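Design review, sub-item: ligand-bound model
Attendees: FS, YL, KQ
YL presented the inputs for the zinc ion complex:
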Amino acid sequence: MNTLPDIEKDFAQWYQDIIYQAELVDQAPVRGCFIIRPYGWAMWENMQQYMDARIKATGHQNASFPLFIPQSFIAKEAKHVEGFSPELAVVTHAGGKQLEEPLVVRPTSETIIHDSFSRWVRSWRDLPLKLNQWCNVVRWEKRPRAFLRTTEFFWQEGHTVHETLQEAETEVQLMLNEYVSFIQGQLSIPVFVGEKSASERFAGAERTYAVEGIMPDGRALQMCTSHLLSQSFAHAFNIKFQNREGEQAYPYLTSWGITTRVVGATIMTHGDQKGLVLPPAIAPIQVVVVAIFKNDEEYQAVANELDFIQSNLADWRVFSDLDRQKTPGAKFYHWELRGVPVRLEIGPRDAKARQVVLVNRFTGQKTTVPFDQITQVVAAEIKNIQDGLYKKAQERLERLVIVGQKLTEFGPQLEERGVACVTGWCQSPECEQALAPYKASTRVLLDTQKVTHCFNCSKPSPRDVLIARSY
Ligand SMILES: [Zn+2]
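KQ shared the predicted structure:
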């Protein structure tokens, strides 16, 4: 058994160790790529399942577009190519010879999808067109960290086409709200939501909105984005439709995505000194039943009750640990490290008394539960853990986010105290650049106005901005 580094003193190393110890990832032969192991992938699958259902329920259909994009496509939208060029992986050879046109491994799929849209959209009757795809994308990463910054990552990318700007804006907000309710409700992570500054915008977008979490070290983590692409891509890819007046018009586009980064955010937000603490909604195993026995006779006595216990837990993802090699202590350690929300222990005396001992991973509390109450008690514990994780994260967020007046005052604290800051901003790029020496950036513009002047130049500030160092 390896002990984890002190989570309070060395959070970065704690994260680095837990992802391997809990068998979420392994190193890949290509730097920047990671192998996602079954336990890590199961977390992502649970997240995917929830979001996929929401994407479909809000009127989108799934499709699949090619991994390879002709290089000329990327160049069609000037800001897009400028933004993505440094991160592109390009295939120049295939089939044993040099390709006439190099192929880009998709960093995102606007260009190849908009090329199709230019053929599929003819009339206002074809709109809105609302597609989504689940896939992997590649953006060459100089400073990789598993889940947080990886050369290859997994995501969904939604792409929609609308008749009017108003409809496109409504779509952008619809999906932003879906992300917020997913992150807060399923992942138990409190967030800030708002528009990005011009310098932080998606390459080619008119407006980018983002959802940002604040990790325990005070650094912001962008968890997803929703872009109003407006008409720039429609012009670049010649997407035109006949409007209701019978005229040719350019439609308004959106795109939005959430990535495997949210797995990293979940690990960091809830983990503790013993390992992962997983929100029940996405935990691969929600209830682990640990059998405790010393000999064959005790093993039988306990094993005989497991079917009955499992049948009472049909609503949950349950695993029964009947390992005959490991001690009970080793089993407890194993499942605590993996963050399983509820552990039920059953030994021969419990079997006889028709009861289990329930241990809550979040609070550490132990309760004796009679067999006939298992269903209700487990349901209540699961709900308490889901809500308790959110509450604890919210309380920490309130401690980690300070209100600052002047950059010279709050700037040094961002790193020294590990905090983020809500302040005022005149919204000029020059003042934004003043954050660079503190390795900080504007994260999102907020709807509040707690500070009425700019953090740098003291000119009036129309609305607050969240400033932080970021992942
Ligand atoms: Zn200013």
